[in-house]
Amino acid sequence: MKNKPDLYVYCLNQDDPKKCTARKLQHFGLAKMLKHRFEVPKKAILLNPFVATILTPLDREYVARFGVVSIDCSWKKVKEVFRWKFKGLNRRLPLLIPANPINYGHIGRLSSLEALAATLYISGFKSYAEEVLSIYKWGKVFLTLNKEPLEDYSKAKSIEEILRLEKEYFPI
User: Fold this and answer.
1) Is position 1 within any domain?
2) By CB neighbour count within 10 A (0-12 exposed, 13-18 middle, 19+ buried), where does 172 fall?
3) E runs forming strands in 19-172
4) 3-class secondary-structure state, position 166
5) Strand 32-34 with 68-72, pairing
6) How many domains does the structure of the chain reveal?
7) Does residue 2 lie within any of the structural domains?
8) pLDDT tens-digit map of 74-94
9) Dihedral sign (CA 23, 93, 128, 98)
10) H or E stretch at 8
11) pLDDT for 15 beyond 90
12) In what order do the strands lie in the sheet with 45-47?
């Protein structure tokens, strides 16, 4: 099993390129940019905020072997983008608090960087999650804001346990 799973981003260029966390991930050699949606590996975990199936530590094997894909788009256009069907094992992340300056504090509105790092953390690649987050000053803030939920999510034994934890931390 790899120590550093493959990270992929399908970037739709809908945001300011200077603030794009996906581009910075690519710049640092931490993620591969996908030019077309058909390039999404079919067994990779694809982060999709609209699916019912939630990411759990049980997805670790898929993360390790096939990687993780983030669709980098504007949160203003996210519903339109996810009407498309994407290959991969579609998973939604449990709720977390973003630390990025654009969506700080808006529960669930993570940047691509935060979403990929959260996936790594929950699936047991904590040191790699920290490495990914270290490319931004606010990366450590993300870990601080979400320390307890991330730790508990990463120890969960089932989808039901993740859903229970999510409701405890974020009773929306």
Assistant:
1) no
2) exposed
3) 32-34, 45-47, 68-72, 89-91
4) helix
5) unpaired
6) 1
7) no
8) 666 666 766 777 888 999 999
9) positive
10) strand 7-11
11) no
12) 32-34, 7-11, 68-72, 45-47, 89-91
